[in-house]
Amino acid sequence: MKEIKCEHCGFWTNGNLVDCNYCGKRLNDRHLTEIEEREQIELRGMPLLKIDPDTPFIKKGFLRVLRFLQLIFFSIISMIAAMASSTVH
Ligand SMILES: [Zn+2]
């Protein structure tokens, strides 16, 4: 069992738990926040379409498809960029 020190109360507790056994606060708080921030930055880096929660259902489906195509487009572009940088020296 992996034991980790709670950064809130300082007790050692089961590292597999989400919340501390002693104070009930979230373990790995810093770590998780870091991951969330990184994901947000990655998402922000990609100029994807924003889907408004008020958008009608049909239009929402259409926007999802558009966003999916955008994702494919971006992955192709980055693939080409990676290939170009690996062949050109
Ligand atoms: Zn604690």
Features:
binds zinc ion; 89 residues; two-stranded antiparallel ribbon; 54% helix; 2 helices; mainly alpha
Describe this structure in words.
- With 89 residues, this protein is mainly alpha-helical.
- It folds into two domains: 1-45, no CATH class; 47-89.
- The chain is built from two helices and two strands, in the order E-E-H-H.
- It has helices at 29-45, 57-87; strands spanning 3-5, 12-14.
- The protein has a two-stranded antiparallel sheet with strand order 1-2.
- The chain is flat and about 50 Å long.
- The mean pLDDT is 82.
- The site of zinc ion has 8 residues, from loops.
Give the helix/strand layout.
Layout: E1 3-5, E2 12-14, H1 29-45, H2 57-87
Antiparallel strand pairs: 1-2
This protein binds zinc ion.
Helix content: 40-55%
What sort of overall outline do the alpha carbons produce when their principal axes are compared? flat
Strand content: 5-15%
CA-to-CA gap between the ends?
48 Å
Number of helices: 2
Oligomer: single chain
β-strand number: 2
Indicate the low-confidence ranges by residue numbers.
none
Major sheet details: 2 strands, antiparallel
Spatial ordering of strands, largest sheet? 1-2
Overall mean pLDDT: 82
Structural class: mainly alpha
User: Ligands in the structure?
Assistant: zinc ion
Query: What does the radius of gyration come to?
Result: 21 Å
- Element-level helix/strand string: EEHH
